[in-house]
From TrEMBL:
Pfam families: GAF_2, HD_5
CDD domains assigned: HDc (cd00077)
NCBIfam families documented for this protein: HDIG
Domain (HD-GYP) ranges: 331-526
Identification of the protein by name: HD-GYP domain-containing protein
PROSITE patterns reported for this sequence: HD_GYP
Amino acid sequence: MPPDKLKDLQTFLESLTHAEGIGNLVEQALKPFKSSLNYRGYLVLVLDEEEDQFSLRYVRNLSRSSQKTVFNLIDEGIIDWSLERGEPTIIPHPQRIEQLGHLTEDNFLIIPLIAGGERVGAIVVLCPLSDNLMNNQVLKSLSILSHILATAIENFKLRSNVQRKIEKLSTLIKASTIISSSLILDDVLSSLLKLTLKEVTSEYGFLLLMDRENEQLLPKASLGASLSKISNDPKSLSKGAIGLVAKSGKPLIIDDYEKDPRFCASGEFVGLAPRTLLLVPLKTKKGVSGVLVLCNARDKPFYTNDNLRTALTLANSAVVAIEKSYLYEDLRQSFLDTVIALTTLIDMKDRYTRGHSVRVTRYCLQIARKLNLSRREIEILKFGALLHDIGKVGVDESILHKPSKLTDEEYKAIKRHPEMGEDVIRHIKFLEEGLQIIRHHHERYDGKGYPNGLKGKDIPLLARIIAVADAFDAMTSDRPYRKAFSFQKTIEELKKGAGTQFDPEIVKLAIAVFKEMRKQGPILHW
Ligand SMILES: [Fe+2]
């Protein structure tokens, strides 16, 4: 053997213990054959025992069409046949035969990888037909080498299986951290999609959820492409790949979407031309509740079974998040129904304020949107506003309905309602954060309010919002001792109170809100 070949062989033997991956190992193994075979490129297939399928593990200088041809060789059983033979096999490139009608210089050399009698995989090399390729000595050397290589690859497989399990565990830990981080489903799904696109390296992706009422798929989260790139036409979705996965409940890998006659004309994607797709159904106990769509595998021609396994793991995490969120949403809705029933109780107690709590809540939510409050703050404000006067249940009706001026004692009794409300609600854990706004909704910006005489920004923001909404509704409602103010007079009164009774910034926003609401129609009183 010439010295340079010996050097290559030595490098290969060293790589058996130091190589960073299967690709590196095969590269070193084929180096001594570079000049004799003059190969253009190659790929490495490794048999996945669990799936009993070949998976693509490494590609070097092989075009997409040649890679597809190799996959056709798998489908036609030629790779299996070569493994059964147990010797390197030369197969003419089928496309060239079709075009030219005779053997050409491009051929696939299939090198079977067998270790201890077990099938490990195959290396498929694209090389021109030459005397060397037909030379038995070269093929014999390749055969010996392939056995050493197969054992080394088998070791790599074992190590990478352990690595894969560690990675799966790490992905699961990341996913469960995301699920427990928030109760807001949209946020959880966006974070899970981000993790999925990172783990299953893809250019962009979407998550669609089945609407609970009309059972239609709706885009819920996207990354790398806008949500509007998914059609909102149920017919397009049902004709496409997304609809098929939702209907069948089975995952789907598409290698060339644009040329797939089943889906390419469906119109499910708007202005997008995805190349490769991986779709996974989100299956709950009640059926398919959504579809995870990953588009354009990065750094590889197709999505692999390994990608599918990771996507399935993450889809299961999304299902856990969805079920948790639906459960929470059902609980929240029944809680909201109970709270609204409670406000009816407040209204029954004080007939002059019928519908007051619901109206105040509506005003507060509009003001909160102008203030760009977070969803959580809006949620607290909603329950706080609905229940701000719950303490009035403890005030004597004769005082609440008294048409004449209140005595000091009577006024004191009324002034106790924020604290009594706080006492009532204190035991409901869900409303913990709303306690402060119930207690402080009668504080004044100048510090002359009750119960604590808090001043300015020391008064919780949500309580300052309720104070303005509460006053607006009180002034526009009839009272035992006066008729309702006109809209204009109420606005004037709010302006007068800005900086003394109310937070001036909130008054400004609230007046804009009241004017907008009035434009949309009369503000109804029950
Ligand atoms: Fe009140």
